[in-house]
Amino acid sequence: MSELAARFLGDGRMFFALSRYNGLAAPNALSAGRVLKLPTSARRAATSSVATRARAADAARANEVRLQALQLLNTGEVDRAVALLREAASLDATDPAIRKDLERAERIQGALTDG
């Protein structure tokens, strides 16, 4: 029941409320083949929770990519660093540190190309 609550209500700890909503005395009273009722807000909550987790995962991955790019930039591999910073920016377009690092790396890249 906790897996169903997590999936449809966005929080596995809501299993008891879900069982009560369906008239079950206890969550373990659920049997195979029983049709469950879900609150109308359940789909929105589950979608919101999934979207929040996806954004958090993208932000974490973007930060990892950013750190790799900065290491490359520090070793002089500017083109690869710019490519990774662009990837990081596509994963998390709202991170000001990624934007700032990308702008700086592109300036360095431009200076090396012009020079």
What does this structure look like?
The protein is built from five helices and no strands. The longest helix is centred in the middle third of the chain and has 33 residues, at 42-74. It has a domain at 55-115. α1 (2-9) packs across α3 (42-74), α3 runs antiparallel to α4 and α4 (78-91) packs antiparallel against α5. The chain is mostly helical and 115 residues long. It has helices at 2-9, 15-21, 42-74, 78-91, 96-114.
Provide tags for this entry.
115 residues, 70% helix
Oligomer: single chain
Give the low-confidence spans. Answer: none
Strand count: 0
The helical percent reads over 70%
The overall pLDDT average reads 83
Radius of gyration: 23 Å
Number of helices: 5
Strand content: under 5%
Overall, the morphology is: rod-shaped
Order of helices and strands: HHHHH
**Secondary structure category:** mainly alpha
Helix and strand arrangement:
Blueprint: H1 2-9, H2 15-21, H3 42-74, H4 78-91, H5 96-114
Helix pairs in contact: 1-3, 3-4, 4-5
In short:
The protein has helices at 2-9, 15-21, 42-74, 78-91, 96-114. The chain is mainly alpha-helical and 115 residues long.
